[in-house]
Amino acid sequence: RGKDEKYRVWMPKLRMAKEYKDKRKSIDNVERNIFKFKKSSEDKSKKMEKEEKLFRETFMYNKEIRVLATATAQRSVPSRRRADLPLAAGEQLDVIDAVQGHAVICRNAQGRYGYVLVEHLNFR
């Protein structure tokens, strides 16, 4: 035996649970994705498409969706009907279409569409 082996301390080998070991191997084998925001933007775009499809079915809207103006909600208003858009005070809304009466069709930041009364909006 050499000099170094004489003074080496024997350490017991720590046992790992099999599930942890398999999990660790699978994590090591997976290629790490630095750009994680791509997945969330894909999920967001899918959600927006779903909301748009629901909007077109609910409102029977077959025209091109264009933003006519941007407005801010003056106060919080809960939705009374399914077609109404619930508002939070200070929320930014895109005005999509002006219908007859005192209501306009708006879209919020989450991509939801609905009717909003003009009296609840502040146009700048």
Automatic annotation (TrEMBL):
Kindly list the GO CC terms recorded for this protein: plasma membrane
Phosphoprotein: is it a keyword of this entry?
A: yes
Q: Helically-extended SH3 domain: from which residue to which, for each copy? A: 55-121
- By its UniProt entry, which PANTHER family does this protein fall under? FYN-BINDING PROTEIN 2, SH2 CONTAINING ADAPTOR PRAM-1 RELATED
Protein name as annotated: FYB2 protein
Q: What keywords appear on the UniProt entry?
A: Phosphoprotein
- Source domain of life is Eukaryota
**One Pfam family of this protein, by short name?**
hSH3
Name of the gene encoding the protein in the UniProt record: Fyb2
Q: Output the GO biological process annotations, alphabetical, semicolon-separated.
A: integrin-mediated signaling pathway; protein localization to plasma membrane; T cell receptor signaling pathway
